[in-house]
Amino acid sequence: MDIMANTLLAVGASPAMVHAEEEVEEFVTLASALLINIGTLSTPWIRSMHKAAAKAQELGKPWMLDPVGVGATTLRTNTATDLAVSYKPTVIRGNPSEIVALAKNICKELDLQPSEGAQKGVDSSQSSDHALVPAKALAVECHCVVVVTGKDDFVTDGSNVIKVSNGHPILTKITAAGCTLTAVLAAFVSLGDVTHVMKSCACALSIFGIAAELAVQDPTAKGPGSVRMLMLDTYGRFNTQTLWNMAKIS
Q1: For 32-85, what is each residue's pLDDT tens digit?
Q2: Which BP terms from GO are recorded (predicted)?
Q3: Share in percent of the chain as helix, strand, coil (round to 5)
Q4: N or C: which end of the chain has fewer CB within 10 A?
Q5: Strand, coil or helix: what is 139?
Q6: β-sheet with 63-66: strand ranges across
C-alpha cells in the first residue's frame, strides 16, 4: 500500500486505501476510479471487494481488477473469477500466468493445456506474448480491456492490440511493482471516457516503464531498493517531451 499510495501521489493522483465493509461504498461514491487488488485476502476483505465493485458498476465508474496470484490457490481463483464475471471491470491487469489462469477459468471454450496458467506464487512463469490469445478471450468474455505485463506489455479489447515495450528487468525484483502499475492505470483511466481506455492504459504503461528506465540510469541507483524510491523522484521530472522521446508504443 505504501509504494502504491506514494506513486499515485507522485503522478498527481489522490489515493485512499480502503477495505472496511462499512465505508467502501461511500469511498467509491467519492472516487474517480476504483482499484481492487486481491493480493491480501480474507473473508471480510472479499465482502468489501464485492460491495465496492457493485457500487462502481451501479455508478458507472471505471474500476480495475488486479488478480494477484490467480491460479495459485482456489480462493484467489474463485475470488477473481466472481468479481470479473459479476461486475465486469473496466480493466483487468495481470502478469501472463495470472491472465492465462483467469481466462482458463472464465472462458470455457479456450483450448489450454492443463499446465497452462500454472502460477509460481504471485510471480509469472510465462511470457506476455504467450498470454495474448487468452487475454483477448478474457476481454471479450468480460467486455473489458485486458492488460498483460511482462518484458513487453499488451493492451487488448479482444480485437485491437497495443504493444508497449518500456521498462527494465529490475522491476521483477521490486515487490508490488505490478500492483503499483495497476494503480497508475486506474489513475490514467479515470481521466478519460470509455472510448479511450486502451490509449490511457498504453500511456500509463509507457510512463511507468520509462520511470524505471530513468531510475536505473541514476548514478545513485544501487539495486531494487534504491530504484524503487528513485522511480518516485523520476515522476516529478517527467514531462510530455520525455514521453514522446522515450515511449515505445506500437
Answers
A1: 999 999 999 999 999 999 999 999 999 999 999 999 999 999 999 999 999 999
A2: thiamine biosynthetic process; thiamine diphosphate biosynthetic process
A3: 55, 10, 35
A4: C
A5: helix
A6: 34-37, 63-66, 91-94, 145-148, 153-156, 161-164
pLDDT digits over 103-149, tens only?
999 998 787 655 554 555 555 456 788 999 999 999 999 999 999 99
Residue 240 CA to its chain's centroid (Å): 23
Domains and CATH numbers, the chain: 1-246 (3.40.1190.20)
Contacts of 113 (CB under 8 A, 6+ apart): none
Which candidate, 79, 200, 67, places its Cα nearest to that of 134? 67
In what helix (H) or strand (E) does residue 176 lie, and over which residues does it extend?
none
Is-above-0.85 flag for pTM?
Answer: yes
**Cell numbers 465482502 label which residue?**
47
DSSP assignment of 58-115: HHT--EEEE-TTBTTBHHHHHHHHHHHHHH--SEEEE-HHHHHHHHHHH-TT----TT
Return the bridge partners of 94, or none.
148
